Protein 1
Amino acid sequence: MIQKKPVMSKTKSSESVKVVVRCRPLNRKEESNGPAGGIVQMDLRLGQVILRNPRASASEPQKTFTFDAVYDANSKQRDLYDESVRPLIDSVLAGFNGTIFAYGQTGTGKTYTMQGAWLDPEKRGVIPNAFDHIFTHISRSQSDKQYLVRASYLEIYLEEVRDLLDPNHGNARALELRENPESGVYVRDLTSCVCKSIKEIEEVMNVGNQARAVGATDMNEHSSRSHALFLITVECSQPGPDGRKHIRVGRLNLVDLAGSERQAKTGVQGERLKEAAKINLSLSALGNVISALADGRSSHVPYRDSKLTRLLQDSLGGNAKTVMVATLGPAPQHYDETLTTLRYANRAKNIQNQPRVNEDPKDALLREFQLEIARLRAQLNHRKWRSKQKKEQVDGGWEGDGDEETEGEEGEEEVEKEAEEYVKLQEQQLEREKQDIREDQFMLADEKQRLLGEKERMMGDLRKEQEATEQLTAKYKAMESKLLVGGKNITDHTNEQQKMLEMKRHEIAEQTRREREIQQQMLVQDDETVELRETFTSLQQEVEAKTKKLKKYLKLYAKLQCIKAEIQDVNDEHVRSRQELEQTQNELTRELKFKYLIIENFIPPEEKNKIMNRLTFDPEEDQWKFQPLVPAESKSSQMKKRPSSAVGYKRPISQYARVAIAMGAHSRYRAENIMFLELDMTPPNTATLDCSTKSERNQIPSLDNSPTKDSGVCKSRSWCQTPKSITSSSSNVSLAACHTATPMTAQ
Ligand code: ADP
Ligand code: MG
C-alpha cells in the first residue's frame, strides 16, 4: 500500500507495457503423445509462470517468469477480458490510444484469444467483447456526448499492407504507409467504415475475415505468416467547462500476429526464399524494437525496419497504452519456442510508453461531420422559414391580419409543418387558377395558352424546390444518423440487476489485479530487504536469525545460478539466431550474385543504364522505385508538339528526302522516307585501276546486277536522281545501302 504512491504518480506521464501470459490446454494429439503432461505451471496469485525443461535433470532449477497476469488452461475468456483488457478499452473511450497484441507460436491460441468462437458467449474473444464494451458504454453515457465509431481491417502479408475491407481485396495493390506529425503513422487510402451498432461492426469484421480466408489457400498456413490488424477509432465530443464542444479521439489496435516459430529457411530458392526472408522480417524487427526499447540505452529504435513496427510505433514506446498477450502451448516438444516466447514477453515488460489523451486533434472526423450537419441544418431551416413566411404573407393577404407574435419562438416541427402546408396550399391555388383560366370564355386561346404555360412553370418550380428540400433533408438525416448520441441510438437491454452484477464483476477483477500487484511488490521487497537487526538477546534468537539469513543466502545463490543459466541460454540463442541470419544472408547474396550474372551477360549495358537512371529511392516508403518513362506533367505537351522536321509531312523526314520529293522522285519509297544510294565506285584514276575493278566486281555481287554495270563505275546517286534506272532486282541491295546512308545524308 505504501509503495502504491510513487507507482501512481509515475503512471501519469509514463507507464509500462502490460504483459499477460496465457497457456492453452493440452489438445487431444498432445495428450495422446505420452504421459509427460504439460511443462507450464502457473501461479495465478503471483502472476508467475514456471517452465520445466523436459530434457533437463530434475535437480536443475526451473525457470520462473513474473508477469502482470497469467491465465492457465482453465481460464475463461471473460476473466482475461475483465482483468486485463477492460481497463485498456476504458482508456480508449476516454481518448487514449490503445493496443492489444497477441504473440506466440502458431496453434497456441492467438486467434482464439483475440476472436474466439463468436457464437458461444463463453468463448467470445477480446475483439467481440471490446465491441460490446464500446457500444454499451456509448448507450449508457450522458446524452450531451456525441460519438463517431469507425473500423478498418488490414493484414500485413509478405511485407505488404492489404486492405481487407476493399471489395476486390484479391487484386488490390499494396497500400502505402504515411506519417503525420499529429496522428502518427497511418495507412494511406485504407477503407474505414462508420459503425452505428455492434451488429454493424461485427459485419465489418466478418467481411474482413472472409477476404482473408479467400486470399489464402490454406488458412492456417496463411495466418501463421500474416499479421491481422483491426483498427477502431472512437471519437467523442462533449461540451467542456468553456461551453465549447471538445473532441477526444481514442484509437484501438487489435492485433493478431503471425506465428512466432522459426520458419525453415534452408534449401529454399527464388520466390520461396524471398518469401521466407520476409515472413519473419516483421517479427524479428518487432523483436529488435522491443529489445532496443527494453534496453533503454540504445538511441536508435529500428521502427523503420518493417511495416508492422512502423504501424505499431506509437504502441511501443510512444503515445499509447499497450497490452501484450503472450500465448503458450503446454506440450514438452515445444519447450524451446515456449521459452523464447516467455523471454520475448519478459523483455516487453520493460518498455515505457507515454500515453496521453488525444484532445481536439485537427483531423477529427467528428468535427467535420458536426460542421457539415450544422451547415445542412442551417440550409434546411432557411428554406423552411422562407416557405413559412411566404405562407404567412399569403394568409395575411387572404385573412387580412398579420400574426407575427410566434416568430422565432416556434419549434422546428411547427416550422416544418407550416412549410409543408404552404407547398400544399400553393399547389391547390395554382390548380384553381389554371381551372379558372381554362373556364374563362372571354380570353383568347393564345392568351390562355400563355397563362397556362406560366402557371405550369410555377408549378414545376414549386416541385423542384420541394424535391431539393427533400434531398437536403435526406442528406441531413443520413449524416446525423452516423453520429451516436449518448444513451439514445443504441438501446441497452440489460436490466438494473444485470448491470449491478456486471459492475460487481468488474470490481472483483480490479480487486484481483490490485492484489496481485501488491503480492508481487511484496515479493520484490522481501528479496531486497537486508536483515538489519544485529543485536541478539539470546543464543536461540541468534541461531534463528542466522538460519534465516542462511536460507536467504541459499535462495540468493539459487537465483544467481538461475541467472547464470539464463545468460548462457540467451547467449546460445543469440548464436543460433546469428547463424540463421548469416545463412539467410548467404542465400540472399548467392541469389544477388546470380542476378548480377544475368544482368552482366544478357542485358546490354545501355539498357541497364536506362533502367538504373530511372531508379529513385523513396525515403518515405524505404524502397527503390521506378520513375515513369515520361514525366507525367510533360507527357501531354510532348505528345502534342510535332517535330519541325515533320511539319507538312506524315512523319519526320530528312532534308535529303525532302529535296528528292521536290524533284519528283519515285513514289514507291516516298512514304518510307528512304533514299536510294549506289556505291560510289569512281576510281581516282580510271586508267590504272582496270585490274582492281575486276576483283571488286567479284566481291560485290550487287554490282554485277547493277543496271549501270556496263558503264563500269558510277557516281553515288539517290533514287530520285535515277528514277529510270531502278529495276526490281536492284532495289533490295540498294535499300540495304540506303538504310545506313540516310541519316548521314540528312546531316
Ligand atoms: P493461433 O491463432 O495461435 O495459431 P488458434 O487460436 O487457432 O492458434 O488456436 C489453435 C487451437 O487451439 C484452436 O482449435 C483453439 O480452439 C484452441 N485453443 C486455443 N486456446 C485455447 C484455450 N485457451 N482454450 C481452449 N482451446 C483453445
Ligand atoms: Mg491464428
Note: Confidence is low (pLDDT under 50) at residues 1-11, 398-409, 687-747.
Protein 2
Amino acid sequence: MISLGIESTAHTLGVGIVNEKEVLANESSVYSGKGIHPRKAADHHADVLKNVLDSALKKSNVSLEDLDMISFSQGPGIGPCLRIGATAARTLSLRLKIPIIGVNHCVSHIEIGKFATEAKDPVTLYVSGGNTQIIAYVAKRYRIFGETLDIGIGNMQDIFGRTLELKFPCGKEIDILVAHGKKYLHLPYTIKGMDFSFTGVLTEALKYIEKEKKEDIAFSLMETAFSTVVEASERALAHTGKKELLLTGGIAASPRLREMCEIMCDERENKFYVPPFDLCRDNGAMIAYHGLIEYKSGKRMKLEDTVVKQKWRTDEVEVTWLS
Ligand code: FE2
C-alpha cells in the first residue's frame, strides 16, 4: 500500500509518501517568522502546499493515482495550521476516492521512531517546540508519564535565543553556545512528581544576560532543563520496567541531550535510540506511516470525523494497531 501523509500542526508543512517497508519521500517547508503567528504560519502552509506535494510525488516517483490512502495530522496543534492540512487531505481523498485517516501527531513521532530504529516497546522522550512529554505504551494506550506544565523545551530555547537576538530557528546556535559554556550558574530546578516546568528557569536565566557570558547562561539553562526530563525519563523506565529509551522531536538534535540520555541508559543497561533527524522533527513521512498502520489495523474514518482537534492528548488515542 502507498500512503501519503500531510503534517501541518505548527511551523512545518510536510508531505511524506511511504509504503509498509520504506519512506519514499519526505519533503517539507518550514515557516520561519519570529515565533509562530498562527495565521501567517497557516498562510505559509497554504502557499507552499502544492509545491511540497509535487516535489514529494516527483521524489518518490509516485503519481496521485498510485496512492492508496491519505493521512493527515488531526491534532494536537495550532488550529489554522491544522485546518490547512486537513482541508488538503479531504480534497485529495474525495478527488482520488481513497480512504482518509486523521492521526495524532505525538503518537506518529513514536511510531516512525520505532519504524526507523530497533526500538520495539520504548519509553519515549518527545521534546519539541510545543511538546515535551514522556510516553510509554501500557494497557492499550500511549500513556503520558510526565509532561511540561507550561511550555516545551524548544519554545523555551526559542524565547532565550530571540532575547539574545539569535537567528530563528536558533537550535544549532544554542547547541554551539552550550558546548562552549564552562560555568554552571545557579538556576531553579523544577520537577513536580514526574512533570516539569520551564518558564521559571527561563525567567531566571534571562536575568543573567549582560552579567554573565552568554555561553555560560545557555549551558546552565539547557543543562537544567535537560536534567529534569532525563531524570523523569529514568523514573519512567524504572516504573514501567521497559528497557529502551527513544528520543524524538526537534530538540533530539541537541548533542548534549543525546549524551545525557546515553549516559543514563548505559548506567541502567538500557538501550538508547534516536531516529535520523528528518524523522525526528515534524515531518510528513511519520504521518503517512502512522496512517498506514492504523488503516491496516482496521481503522476507517468518515469525512465528518476529520474535524481537527487542537488539544488532542496522546493518551486519548485508542491504539488498535498494537497488541
Ligand atoms: Fe512534533
Note: The pocket of fe (ii) ion is lined by residues 105, 109, 128, 131, 249, 282 (CB under 6 Å).
Protein 3
Amino acid sequence: MSKTILRVEDLSVRFRTEEGVFNAVDNISFTLEEQKTLAIVGESGSGKSVTSLAIMQLLAENGHISSGEIYVDDENILNMSSSQVQHNILGKKISMIFQEPMTALNPILKIGDQITESIIEHQGTGKKEAYEIALDTLKQVGIPSPEQRIKQFPHELSGGMRQRVMIAMALVTRPKIMIADEPTTALDVTIEAQILNLIEQLKSTFKTSILFVTHDLNVVADIADDVIVMYCGQIIERGPVVDIFENPQHPYTKGLLATMPTLEDHKGELPTIQGGVPSITQRPGGCYFHPRCPHRMKKCETQSPGVYTVGQQQVKCFLFEGNKEERNDGK
Ligand code: SF4
C-alpha cells in the first residue's frame, strides 16, 4: 500500500475584501500518496490555486488559513514557525512550479546563479558542487546545450525552456512533493506535451509525488492518478481518474466533461454549463452549484449537501443521499 505524503484536513482559507471576509477554500480534506499524481481541477474562482498557495504558505497579504491542518510526512506544518517551514519544508520537501516562469524567475540573475543559490541554501554545498548539480539537473530536464544555457538570463530562453528551468529549480533539492500550478497553460500544445512527458518521467526518476492544479481536463486525463473537482472553494467530487472520466457523478463534473472537445466534435458548438462561477462575495445559499444545476431540488437552494460514496467516488450532492455518507459539511 502506498504511503500518504501530504494530508490536508479541514482546510479553510479566508480572504479580506472591501465587502467583508469570505472563505475562498471551505473545509477541504484530501491526501496525496507517494509517487502518485493528484489533480485538482476547477474553473477560475474554484479555490484550486488558493489551495496550493496555502500549502506553500504563499497566500496574498489579504488571505489567511482560518482553520485546518496540513501534514507533510506526518508533521503538521501549520504548527511550525515560519522559519522552520522556510528551512525544513519549502524547497526541501515541497517545491512548486508556476504557470508563468517569468514571474518566478529573477530577470536580472543568470539561470545558473538562480539554481545554484537554491542548492547552496537548501543543501549547504559549496559553489562548485552546486554548479555541477545545477548543470546535471538542466541536462535531466532536457535543456539542450546546458553549459551555454546556464550562463544565460531568463529572457534569452523560450517559454518552454523557461518552464524546464523552473522544473529544474524545483527538482534540485529532490523534493518529495512537487506542486504544479497550471504549468503548461502559457505554452503551445507541442511544448505542453513535452513538459507533461517530462513531469511524468521525473516523477518516476525522482520518486516525487505531484499535486497538479489545472482547469484543463485534457491534461488531467493524461497525467493524473486521482482527481479532485473543486467548485466555489469546496470539493464536490473526487475519485480515481478513470472513474471520474468514465462515470462522473456530480452534475458539475458531468457538465465539465461534456464541454471537453472530442475527435467526433469536428463541427457544431460544444455544450456549456449555463451561468458562471459566482465570485467569492456572491456565493448563493445551499448547494453553491444550484443556480446552474439542471437537477436542483427545493432543498438545494437552502441546504448544503453532505458527501456520499458512489463506487470509488465521493460526491457532494443530494442526488446520492441514499448512499453511504462520508461527511456532512452541513452549513
Ligand atoms: Fe444539483 Fe442539488 Fe446536487 Fe447541488 S445538491 S449539484 S443543486 S442536485
Note: The CA atoms of residues 167 and 199 lie 8 Å apart.
Protein 4
Amino acid sequence: MPKLNENFLKLEKNYLFINIAKKINAFKQANPDADIIRMGIGDVTLPIAPAVVDAMKKACDEMGVKETFKGYEDSGAGYDFLKEAVSGYYKSFGADVSPDEIRINDGAKSDCGNIVDIFGDDNIILVTDPAYPVYVDSNLMSGRKIIYADSNEDNGFAAMPDYDVHADIIYLCSPNNPTGSVYTREQLAVWIDYAKKNNAVIIYDSAYEAFITDPNVPRSIFCVDGADEVAIEMCSLSKTAGFTGMRCGYTVIPDKLKVIASDGTEVSVSQIWGRRQGSKFNGVSYPVQRGAEAVFTEKGLEQIHENIAYYQENARIIADTMSELGVKFTGGINSPYIWFKCPNNMGSWDFFDLMLEKIAVVGTPGAGFGKNGEGWFRLTAFGDRQRTIEAMERFKELIKSL
Ligand code: PLP
C-alpha cells in the first residue's frame, strides 16, 4: 500500500475558493432569483488585447505550416524573443534584468509553489500573514517550519522583519494579495538587509506590479540595490494582460544569487532551478509566448493599460465608497484589491454570510488568508463597471442598516 504524504492532512480540507463556491451554490439553490454580484475571486473580466490576439493567430498559422512549425522548445525556459521583451519591460521601470536571468512559465502560481523543491526541508520559512495561500500550502506540503510576520492594522498591513528572529526563505508580495498594501523602496531595502544578515532568500511575488501608480513604489524588487544577491522574483501576465485563461508568467533568478551546499561549494540557484524545470516542466506553448511578446510592444502596452485603467477606476469607486462610509481599508490605490475592516467587529465569515444574504454580493473573507485576516474582508476591482457601482450602492444600504 502506498504511504501518503501526510503533510497534506495538515492543509485546510478545501482550498479557500472552493469553500466560497459551495456557500454561493447553497445560496443560489435557496434563492434562485437572487442577482448575485461576484467580487470574490481575483479573476479578470476584460478580453485579451487585440494586439495579443493578432500575434497568437499569426503564431497558430505558423504552427500549421511545415517550415514554421515548432515542437518542444529546446530550453523549456522560454523563447529568446519573449525573454528579451520581458527584459526590456523590466528596464523600462529601472530594473536591470538580463534575458538570461528570466524563465518563462505557465503563471506565477506554479513557480511560487514549485520553487520549494530546490530548497531543503529544514529551512525556516517566513510568510507575512495574511498571505496568498500557495506560499503556506506548498511549504506545509513538504513539512517545513513556517513562521509568520504580522501584517495588521498597526503597520498598514505591510509587515517588516524582526531582526531577533531567523528565517531562511522569505515570501513577500507587493502589491499584496489580499491586503492591497505595497512596500516602498525603503521598506524593501530593510527586507533585503534582513535577508543578507540571515543568508536568506526572498521570494518576491510581483503579480500585481502593473497596478502601481505611485513612483515611490518599486515595480520590481530589482529596482532596489542589493536585491540581485538575495531575491527571486515571480511575475505573471494574468493580471497585467488578462492571461488568467492563457497561462503565462516569468520568474527572475539573478546570476548573482548563490547558496552554499553542505560540502561548502557555492551553487547557483538559477542553475539548480533550471535543472529542476528541465526534468519537470516542458515550457509554454509557442502561440501563448508570441501573444505574451505582443503585450510588451508599444501597441500591446497601450491596450493593456486601457484595461488596467478600467479596473483602477473600479478600485477607486470601491475605495471612495469605503471612505464615504468611514470604513477602514487598505489598497484600492496601486492595487486591484480593497481590504476593509468588517463593521461592528464582525468576523470575516459572518460578514461574508451577511453580505450574501442581505445584498447578494460575494467577497472573500480575510480569515481565509491567515489569522491576521480575521475581521477583514477583500473585494476585487476586476468586475464590470456597472455591477461594481451597483454592488457599492447595495453595500452602502447594508452598512447604513447595521
Ligand atoms: N501571485 C499572487 C499574489 C496572486 O494573487 C495570483 C493570482 O491570483 C498569482 C500569483 C497567480 O497568478 P498566475 O495566474 O500567474 O498563476
Note: Residues 7-47+300-401 form a domain with the Aspartate Aminotransferase, domain 1 fold (CATH 3.90.1150.10).
